[in-house]
Write a structure and sequence with these properties.
The chain is of the alpha/beta class and about 220 residues long. Helices cover about 45% and strands about 15% of the residues. It has 7 helices and 7 strands; from the N terminus they run βαβαβαβαβαβααβ. Strand 5, helix 5 and strand 6 form a beta-alpha-beta unit. The longest helix has 29 residues. It is globular and about 50 Å long. The N and C termini lie far apart (about 35 Å).
């Protein structure tokens, strides 16, 4: 393998798919996702790729899959879950689900892959959200998870400084299924042109990846 290796979670659709396509021109992409059929469709469309089919909330499955990776240069956390609604109408189960996928899963995956990332002096990119910097009414669980993800990135950066680079990427509203759902809940029409194109988020990932080894984009905010 002469290409650098990048693992992108949530890479079968939306932002993750755009990132996989962007990095596919230069990297061997490990395409992460739960749906094997969707993952293999992405793999087949890229110049150099392999499937990474796993439920990122299943630690045993992740451990087994990570053991198969013998080299990693870039880890992009794009898988995530949205949650809408005020705190008063939420449930403990809903909070646990969103925190499990948005915070605990990337923590676990990063920990499992950290030895390889240290060996390559690699890069971890957390695809976060504007909600990881500012919150609004009706986004309590989602914002809490994204603020926690910001803190996770900050802590990892401090712990691995000089060895592994860490980037927090905070896009505003992106034209994905999340915005379709949110528009429906708010009773307004959805127009993709009103939002960021996922390809713009992918280009921000490219920016972080292509910086010189001694430079680091610690936080990128897109709007």
């Amino acid at each position: 393998m002469t290409r650098p290796v990048a693992l992108v979670t949530g890479a079968s659709r939306g932002i993750g798919l755009a990132i996989a396509r962007e990095l596919g021109s230069t990297h061997h992409v490990l395409v992460g996702g739960r749906d094997a059929t969707a993952v293999h469709e992405v793999v087949d469309a890229l110049p150099s790729a392999a499937p990474f089919v796993a439920d990122v909330t299943d630690e045993a499955a992740l451990t087994a899959r990570c053991a198969e990776i013998d080299r990693l240069d870039v880890l992009v956390h794009s898988a995530g879950q949205v949650a809408f609604g005020p705190l008063a109408e939420s449930s403990t189960a809903q909070w646990r689900a969103v925190l499990e996928l948005n915070v605990i899963a990337p923590t676990t995956l990063t920990r499992l892959l950290l030895p390889g990332l240290r060996a390559s002096r690699g890069l971890v990119i957390f695809v976060n959200s504007g909600a990881g910097l500012q919150t609004w009414a009706g986004f309590s669980a989602y914002s809490a998870s994204k603020y926690a993800l910001t803190a996770l990135a900050d802590a990892l950066r401090a712990e691995e400084r000089g060895t592994v680079r860490v980037t927090s990427l905070h896009p505003g509203r992106v034209a994905t299924d999340m915005q379709v759902e949110l528009s429906a809940l708010q009773g307004r029409p959805y127009r993709a042109a009103d939002y960021l194109d996922p390809a713009e988020v992918a280009r921000a990932v490219r920016l972080a990846v292509e910086l010189a080894p001694g430079a680091s984009a610690e936080s990128i905010r897109l709007s």
